[in-house]
Every structure is written in C-alpha cells, then in structure tokens.
Design a protein that fits this description.
- By secondary structure, this protein is mainly β.
- It is built from 2 helices and 39 strands.
- It has a 24-stranded mixed sheet that branches. Strands 6-9-13-17-20-22-24-27-30-33-35 form an 11-stranded parallel sheet.
- The longest helix is centred in the N-terminal third of the chain and has 14 residues.
Length: 394
C-alpha cells in the first residue's frame, strides 16, 4: 500500500425484494468524499532530507479552511523553513494534524520558529496530537508558537497531545497573547536552549485557563516552565493549572509563576528533581519553584542531590500561599549543606500555610510575610515544627 492511499471509498449496494418475487435493480451509493488527506497530498516527501516545510504550511491552511485533520504518517520530515499558518477567517470546526509517530527535524539555521501559528480572527478547536516529535538543532528559535494579539482576536480550545519538543534553540512551546481555554497533555519539553514552555500575556492579549496534564520539563537551558508577562515587568498568566508530570535538571527554576496562581489554579502531584543546576547546592536563591503574590501546591515532592534547588518553593508573597501534602528531601552534596528546606518565606503582607508537609521552613530576614504549619515536620526558625502546629513571624 502506498503512503498516499489514506482515503476511504465505499460503494454500498442496496436491494430489496418486491411482491411477486420481482427483484429491484441494485442502486449504488456514491463514494464518500476523502476526509483524511495526508501531508503527502500537499507535496511532503518524508525522507528526512527534502524540505517538507511548505507541505506542512499548505496542509494547515487546508485543514483550517475545510475543518479537516491532516494525517502525518510516521516518517521523518526535514524542515528547512518555518512552518507557518495565519488565519484568514474565523475557524469553528476541529482541525489540525493527526500524527502517527512523525518527526519534524529542524534544518533552520536562524532564530525563527519551527512551527508558528498566528490568529487575527476567532480560531477554535486546533488539535495536534497522536505522536509528534520536533527535533531541534539549537540554531532555530521556538519549537511551537501560538499567538493572537489582544482585542477581538482569540485563539482558544486548543488541544496538544503526545508531542515531544527537544533541543530547539528557544522555548519548546510558547503560548503568547490571547490564547486560552486549552489543554496540553502527555507532552515532553526538554534540552531546549531557553524554557521548556512559556505562557505569556503579550500585546494586550491574555493567556488564561490552560491545563497541563502529565507533562515533563527536563534539562532546559533556563526554566522548565514559566508563566509571565511580555508587556510589563510584573503580572502575567496566573491560571495555568498543572496536574501530574515531572520537572528535573533545568539550569534555573523548574517552574516560575511571576503572578502566582489565582484561586482555583494550582500545581498538583508534580515531582521536582535537581533543578537550578547553575547554582551550587545549598544556595538560598535556588528553588524548584519560584512565585510572586501567592501560590497553591498539593502533593508535590522535591528532591535534590547536586542541583542548587535548596527549596521546593521560594517567593515574594503578598497573599495566602498554601502547600498541602508537599515534601522536600535531599541527598549527596545538597544534604551535606544542611540547608535544604520545603519553603523559603519572603515578601510583604502575605501568609504561608503548610498542611501535612515535611521538609521545614526558612525565613528571609526582615520579611513581614508570616507563616504557619499544621501537622508538618522539619526544621524551622523556632527549632523544629510541632506536629500540632507552629506559628512564626507574628
């Protein structure tokens, strides 16, 4: 079977008996239209050498305009120019790429994205999934960028599934501007020159209501994942919800929330290991997670042997921060420093509450942020946490 034979043509014959035993002539039903074109229909070669970027750009244009899922068979596709798509009208039907274990190997030698999708309309229901790997060479920019400027331009209801982005020069994944109400699941972002993933307010647009489910952020040159604001120094995305996954061996913080997490948003059941490799073990500035304003974490665990993430969490808090069932442990060089703690408390007017946690508390000198621990264990400025409850900085 050739790779292009990805459509279904079905002819159905219907016959019925008639009174008196006369047979009615069979009637042929017209063949169904092709509903699943492949990238080969748009000129892709899939030999890992020929430039297939134009074929992918064309496939995305047709997918959006006709509401189709274009099949990407499991071959290696060389990408020498950015794959681009820009909206020309509203899109309200499911569209995208149905991948079958395909690899896009970047041959881009400038800092441009491997794949960039931009929206100047209302665009919904983009799906990229089924098994796709984007392999960078370190000279390109971001791996996959979705962008919509502020105002009436909205890019939402996006679903990214089973995507691995590795070794690109910029961020693995970038959601920028008005991108919201979307899900990223079972994806891997690792060995990227900058961040594994970034979710950023930009050009008066707001990134909001993003769910990360079972994703992994490893060995990136800066942060594993950040939520930020490209328009200003402070503020930014605060309702990226993280459920499960792992974050390890990033050069700086594992996760950064420049505006904290809003009520209803949290980090749950995520493991952190040996982050902030650019700092020595025991450094008080190092942590797996950094946040401003407020943060909620539940059932998360940090561990360090050779990285500089001395704390599971540190931040400058001005509101209520809650850690439920979280822990921080250490071994090797980190344990030898004796500095490992669950949380470093800092900021103004905030309050940090620990419930059922282990790993202890450290406090910035002169901070007006208070802390409280219930049913928790570990060292603290009072000596050790009392299982019945400990209260400090009041």
């Amino acid at each position: 079977m050739q790779r292009r034979d990805l459509f279904v043509g079905v002819a159905t014959l219907a016959a019925s008996g008639m009174a008196g035993g006369a047979a009615r002539a069979a009637a042929a039903v017209p063949a169904r239209p092709r509903v699943s074109p492949s990238v080969f229909d748009f000129g892709a070669v899939g030999d890992g050498v020929s430039d297939d970027s134009a074929a992918f750009s064309a496939a995305l244009r047709v997918a959006a305009s006709e509401g189709r899922m274009v099949v990407v068979p499991g071959y290696e596709y060389a990408i020498a120019e950015p794959i681009t798509w820009s909206s020309t009208d509203h899109v309200t039907r499911q569209w995208g790429l149905a991948c079958q274990g395909a690899t896009l190997r970047s041959k881009i030698t400038t800092d441009r994205e491997v794949m960039s999708l931009s929206c100047d309309h209302i665009v919904r229901y983009l799906v990229i999934g089924g098994g796709l790997t984007i392999k960078g060479n370190g000279a390109e920019g971001n791996g996959l960028r979705l962008f919509a400027p502020g105002g009436s331009h909205h890019f939402y209801n996006v679903s990214l599934q089973n995507i691995a982005i590795e070794g690109v020069g910029g961020d693995g994944l970038l959601f920028e501007g008005n991108v919201f109400e979307s899900t990223v699941s079972s994806c891997f972002f690792q060995d990227c020159g900058q961040n594994g993933a970034t979710f950023a307010h930009s050009q008066n647009g707001v990134v909001s209501a993003i769910d990360l489910i079972g994703c992994f952020f490893n060995q990136n040159g800066r942060f594993g994942m950040q939520c930020t604001n490209f328009d200003a120094k402070y503020g930014g995305t605060n309702d990226v919800r993280v459920f499960g996954g792992y974050c390890r061996e990033n050069q700086k913080f594992g996760f950064v929330f420049h505006n904290g997490t809003a009520p209803g948003a949290s980090i749950q059941q995520v493991g952190f290991e040996n982050n902030y490799l650019s700092k020595e073990p025991g450094d008080r500035d190092g942590a797996h997670v950094y946040a401003r304003v407020r943060l909620a974490m539940r059932d998360c665990a940090g561990y360090n042997e050779f990285g500089g993430a001395t704390f599971l969490l540190r931040g400058q808090f001005t509101d209520l921060t809650v850690l439920d069932g979280c822990s921080q442990d250490s071994g090797g060089a980190m344990r030898a420093t004796g500095n490992s703690r669950l949380v470093r408390v800092g900021g103004a007017h905030g309050h940090v509450l620990l419930r059922g946690c282990s790993g202890g508390v450290d406090v910035d000198a002169g901070t007006s942020c208070t802390w409280e621990a219930r049913n928790s264990t570990g060292p603290c400025p009072l000596g050790n946490l009392d299982m019945r409850g400990s209260l400090g900085n009041v």
